[in-house]
Amino acid sequence: MLGKPVIKGTRITVEQVLKKLAEGATKDDVIVMYPHLKIDDINAVLDYASEVIGNEDVIDLSE
């Protein structure tokens, strides 16, 4: 998947799941779209995204 993070054992990217949730899909909707996923998989996506964003460094280049 071109180096993008995926849900273990699938070809479903973290990005795909986040986009569906951002579009208003519920966790249950995502499971209907991807029946082999579990709620734990979706929670792991959200955890992963939170960790990535939480560990970003902001560099102020305006100085």
Description of the structure:
The chain has about 60 residues and is mainly alpha-helical. The protein has a domain at about 15-55. It is built from three helices and no strands. The longest helix is centred in the C-terminal third of the chain and has 16 residues, at about 40-55.
Strand % is under 5%
Residue ranges: pLDDT <50 for 5 or more in a row?
Answer: none
Distance between the termini: 38 Å
Shape: elongated
The overall pLDDT average reads 93
Would you list the SSEs in sequence order as H and E? HHH
Structural class: mainly alpha
Give the biggest sheet: none
Oligomer: single chain
Per DSSP E runs of 2 or more residues, the count of β-strands stands at 0
Question: What Rg is obtained from the alpha carbons, in whole angstroms?
Answer: 14 Å
Percent helix: 40-55%
Tally of individual helices: 3
